[in-house]
From TrEMBL:
PROSITE patterns: PROKAR_LIPOPROTEIN. This is Phosphoesterase. GO terms for biological process: phospholipid catabolic process. The lineage of its organism: Bacteria, Pseudomonadati, Pseudomonadota, Alphaproteobacteria, Hyphomicrobiales. It holds the Pfam family Phosphoesterase. Keywords: Hydrolase, Signal. GO terms for molecular function: hydrolase activity, acting on ester bonds. PANTHER family: ACID PHOSPHATASE PHOA (AFU_ORTHOLOGUE AFUA_1G03570), NON-SPECIFIC PHOSPHOLIPASE C4-RELATED. Residues 1-27 form the signal peptide. InterPro entries: Alkaline_phosphatase_core_sf, Phosphoesterase.
Amino acid sequence: MKHILRHGLLGLAVGGAVFACVPPAGAAVTGNLLVNGHAEAHLCTDDWTAQTPTPGWTVVRGAASVACWSGFSYMNEVPVLPTGGSPGKALFASPGIDTSIEQIVDVSAAAEAIDKGQVAFSLSGWLGGWRDRPEHAVLTAIFLHDDRRAAGAPVVVAGAGPEARHQKTALLQRAAQGMVPPGTRQIAVSVDFPSGMSSFQNAFADNLSLTLSGDVRALAAAPPQEPKEPKGMTPPLDHVYVVMMENTNYADIVHDDGRSASIDERMPFLASLARRGVLLTDMWAAYHPSDQNYVAMVAGNTYKFGPVYYPNYDLSATHLGDLLDAQRRSWSAYVQNMKAPCNLNSDPSGAGWYAPDDQPFAQFHNVIANPARCQATMRDLTDFQGAIAAGGKLPNFAWIAADGWWDGEGAWQDNFDVGVSLQRQDQFLQSTFAPLLASPEWRGSRSLLVVTWDESLGWGWPDNHIATVLVGSPGLLREGAIDRTHYDAYGVLRTIESAFRLPGFDRFDRYATPLNSVFKDEDEQRPHARPANPIPSPALATRGAIAETFGRVATPASAERGQKFVLIAPDDIANTAAVLAPLGRAPDEDAPRFAFDAKGAATIPTEGLAPGYYGAWRVDRADGRPVRAPIPLRVLPSPQVGPRTPGVEIVDAPRADGGTKAIFVREGANTLVRYCRPNNAAAGDAWIGVFPAGTTPDQLTQANALSIGYWLKTPAEGGGPCGEAMASASELPVNAVYNIYLLTNTGAAGVPIGRSDSFTVTPALPH
């Protein structure tokens, strides 16, 4: 362990490869070898509830964003920054669950000097977090041979926790120096952003740098690299069809244990599509709540803050329809129960829940203000069915939409039953697309169908993981494949642009990852692939009990002390094991190693571990070296509710006074709650409600809870008196205090049971 002083601030370097070094006199020094280490290469978003691509970096877990520094002003926060240096306009952040971004630096041009032990490295960055939250960014470097085996021990740069930040929102300069291990040909640099259980956007990074010194003249002479735009490899297509269903969690649709994935049995038609197409297991929506996700997929940006619906978008921006028109390609949006073309009037009480913004093009002024264009392109779903039957009448691009009931949202709201919603969505998909897939036009063309969702059911970060299935006409896709590449809405747009050879927008689509690997002609060979990081087991990833009103909401991997962490290796487990170390530290050589069993699972006990963050590393069993940065795991404090102490509490809620003070929940966050009902309270009568502080007892009704959010059903899927549930705070007014109660129905109003909890919603958006 070595302490290094930079700009008057103490940096912490951890890892067996770190030791004092002095470059030879006259040694060459490279510039920053990291591409876009300063986050300034392209666009940033000042909407901190949005995710974006990260130019130059690959998202390997969660969902990241290039956030504008100006976004702090919406939260009434002025972060403390290192002295010297410039923050620029942007930094790296992460709305998604335990996000990690990575890039691999080729240093083979200095191979001769590296192998002589004559090349030093310096790894540094601004790392930090939010107020007293325990989360903070961690920077890791892994030294790799050209066959992707580890050439030496990892280097971890951390030390930006709440104590180091003096409980303030701050970024601190942190650095590590040492010698590059002989045999190194690549350096994998990653940044990890733990997210927290009931919050998001708590860890930040900026001004990331990797430099080498020594006989590195070839590297030093190279000009600074700019991010490369991912090349679209989509073959030319005749037709692309997109359907975006609504408000459904990935884990409710896809049963994914890391080694295999399948569609829930309540969606047999979607399962048949996955068998003949490609299932994307790491697809993330762009936004909470809904409409921004539609706009992002056809215009390359979200444009508006917070809950905005038709007619309040009215965008002047160009969109996919404009690009298609410029190349004389046809396009239409078909919506169930639109009835008349260009119907701009919502009809929630009619035959279905039709609304103009069931499809994205109603949000653009140059469509809705042009009656002829609007009537030609915004059509009822029956026109799509008629075009299939007629043959040769389908447009090059079609957006197909269920109304607000059949898309899953209304079907769920009728009874808060996720299973009913899944069944109704599947029925719509079958009735709409079975005729298309059986048609001569589908079989005789090069066509792609994208079945995706707008957002997860919880409506709040850090979860916005969504299911997506792609189906291609015969011979187009790698049929039956599971693709674990990270994708988002901008990547779908980039794929459509590539399929039709469109120029793109130079918005967030520019650096988005296109869906290249789903196509059959794409080269599937990836030489010397590193062993993948293990992933949390399904029970750990959803906390095992969140299958109530909001379905299986994904959460950061956490367990109470005494429970077990179960991790799944998604690939060959030969000669590897799992090792646990405090997050921000490299694993010790003598740390216990936990073997993966025949099913690829490693079980890590938590007895004796203090509450806090840990990193789970996958290491080579022979030399103990990892080839990737770890995944974060959280040991939670002991619960405050139990069968003998009933009530409700917010999970993972740090309280400065030890347990009575209201905590802060960021606007747009999911709030995870733990409950225990007494044995004499019937499960069918128990429910959880969120109410403004000061609500009188006679107003603690389910109807009033519905007016500001949703009451939560209990018990948990596993039965028993205790469980967990997610209470959405995504649309609650900010700067207000709310109470969460466990209640029983004994009359018109619910009666609170045992312990209650409270929180204050802090702003994340302009108000």
